[in-house]
Structure prediction request, 757 residues.
Amino acid sequence: MASEVQADYLNELNPPQREGVVNTEGPTMLIAGAGSGKTRVLTYRIAHLMRYHKVDPFNIMALTFTNKAAREMRERIEKVVGSDAKNLYMGTFHSVFARILRSEASKLGYPSNFTIYDTDDSKTLIKQIVKENNLDDKLYKANVVYNRISAAKNRLVSWRDYINNPIYAEDDASNMRPEMGKLYQVYVARCYNAGAMDFDDLLFNTNVLFQEHPDVLNKYQHRFHYLLIDEFQDTNISQYLIAKRLAAVRQNIAVVGDDAQSIYAFRGADIQNILNFERDYPDLKVIKLEQNYRSTKNIVEAANSVINKNTAQLKKNVWTDNEDGDLIELIKATSDNEEGKLIASSIFETKMQTQSSNNDFAILYRTNSQSRAMEEALRRNNLKYRVVGGLSFYQRKEIKDIIAYLRFIVNPNDEQAMRRSINLPKRGIGPGTIEKLVVASAEHNKPLWEIMTQATNHVGGRGGKQVEEYVNLIKSFRLTAEKKDAYDTAALVAKNSGLLKELYADKTIEGMSRYENVQELLNAIKEFTDDQEREDKSLAAFLQEVTLLTDEDRNANPEEAITLMTIHMAKGLEFKYVYIVGMEEELFPSQMMLSSRADLEEERRLFYVAITRAKDKLHLSYALNRYRFGRLKACEPSRFIEEIDPRYIKVNRKFSSTAPLSSAESYVTKNFVNNMQKDKSNRKFASAPKHQPSADFKPSDTSGLTEGMKVEHPKFGFGTVSVIDADGANRKARVNFDNVGEKTLLLSFAKLRIIED
Prediction:
């Protein structure tokens, strides 16, 4: 009978997959290459435990990273074992441990019905605390404070540890936020007093619970006989320590992941968890799932040739029995605007030739701001699309904020535009003042703009004066709009309104993304005014075009659409036809990811993830020129293009610009037509070895640092101080590092170990 039960699902598996299912005892790591069927192995492993080994589902814990993944796994297990699968302890890390925390809340002094604060709740509370402590809300932005506290919790740094850590204190002082530790302390106290935990507390407090209450840990160690973790490469320190503690007694821990798809370091994911897993489990059984069932041979081999350039990785040989398929096609455009047009044309032709659905196509990009050119081109070709993981470009808040200013300049009676723009950035005009203006307009039967120009007659105190200042600002913008084109006006608005400055000051990931989006809007307006065939280049004409572009067809079927998303959002998905756009230096790889070997290798893993989303056909595109900050900037093709083995790639002549050869086009021709290699000597970190900090690394007091001293930096390695620039608190040192060359460091911020002779 048992063999008949096994035959249901084991016969569907290849030998390594089968091994991953039936070897259920002891620590196991399944290294699952892209498209290798890891979800099937994980679900069948759980089903095998229940059906063949008769393990009670209450004794199995399975952890995932998305509710969708957990739901799909449970459904697949139910097909094998029936409704008993509902009793599995399965879900995301946060949902599973929230369940445990509710049972054990009293041990930590929380009520069992504690509230879970979402991000908005947390940021609202932080704003209140900042205000109550009379701190500058421009320096202590809720976003910045929240992200700092979140990062500390994910590293298991309590508020006490934070306050007593001189490195954190020095870091905060150098960023002019010396009260960050106090805010962390007060925030934790306020959450506790309110009987609330935030998202990060669900993991942080689980670690506290298991560390401070051995009896509780012991209970769950003996309850859960088997622990399984999906997407293990995405775990952070907090998640790994919980798993390690739970599995300590029986050591039946099985992790599934792919180090080549570790792309979430910015969220706290630590690739070392998977790279060093064997260190914690010497008896670890490693099973490699290397057969790719998703992609063609050319796509699989191209992806391998790229990821093999990384030094920090678990070696595997991903292969496929699928057909060779088409070569990867490289599309060259003269500009980002043309890039969108060429890709839209390519998609249209492929649809006509293959009778493919819109759902078969995906356009992937490094940053959200790149969607704008793609969206406009797809709309012009009447191709339905959906933007995943974010709003359509023109629906994003920061874009709508700027557009509101532009609309009010063109139509000063646009009440909604006024309501949105009048207090952005904050200028002390509250909802009460706005309502008084609207009421006065109705009572006196006068246009809103006319009432606003005489605001002090209708609104007393500071509010009326602030409104009139805003009116004068709008008047100055209107004068510009009457004389200048749409771009000159919009650029002036972005600068003089204060919106661009406010976004630039926000150095969080979200803030930088919003700043890039506004720059992309200005690029779009610049392209509009640079169009030689367009007669009317006024602001009113641009707004009319934008309005038509964003007037979505409500009857469109959302299931039948081309997918636009960032590569981060695409992880775990697959499409027949994939277009990876913006393959240019400083865009992909991102300029922000060129400061270390580790960052560059994460960017390469991101490219690997993008390549392996494609099943049948992959296109890469780049622009010779791209609008940045309102100027057309010459671009260099990404280093990642040349890292693909030339056997698997070709230049698409039909859907590429016919512009005369530029240096960039010569580069592509040299690499892929003549199969030559470009000199990489000018590339950052082309050959610099990764530095591992010394075991005894500890930052030194650099107040006595002098020229000629030898130092060690945790990322840049060993070097010699060449110049000291003494300027009070901004004291700097120029250091010649052995591996990465010269760097200038702010000593109040840099972490240097002085090497004593």
